[in-house]
Design goal:
mainly alpha, single chain, about 5% strand
């Protein structure tokens, strides 16, 4: 139940960040897609709506919870492995904001990634009985 709450908090923070940036601050949250590397899909610009933000946060949270559960069953120090893998995944997620259509959109997307990622990393690490930084977990 604690892990579900962590995921819900991450989703809530993502929605709050989107609301602050898009309707309130007026950021046009657009990303480029397709049209690269000989793909068959034409290049285009697509908006990132609140629904997409919710789905992405829920999927990230669900994947994080599943990974942590697997690590707890199969490793001696699940907290240590969790922190390393989760930080690597968060770092790699910053490739997404590089496709932003503007600097403001890129900064906003980076902020949303940080809100969700840090919430999941810190919140879920605490459910293992460890706190970050992870020493002997």
């Amino acid at each position: 139940m604690r892990r579900a709450r962590v995921v819900l908090v991450a989703v809530g923070l993502a929605v709050a960040g989107w609301v602050l940036a898009v309707p309130l601050a007026g950021v046009s949250l657009q990303v480029r897609s397709g049209g690269r590397g000989g793909g068959h899909e034409p290049a285009g610009v697509h908006g990132v709506g609140v629904g997409l933000v919710v789905v992405a946060a829920v999927l990230a949270g669900t994947a994080a919870v599943v990974l942590l559960a697997v690590l707890e069953q199969r490793t001696r120090r699940p907290g240590r492995w969790w922190a390393r893998i989760a930080c690597a995944v968060l770092a790699s997620s910053f490739v997404g904001p590089l496709r932003a259509d503007s600097l403001a959109a890129g900064v906003t997307l980076t902020g949303l990634h940080l809100l969700v990622g840090v919430t999941l990393i810190v919140g879920l690490a605490r459910t293992t009985g460890c706190a970050l930084p992870v020493d002997d977990c």
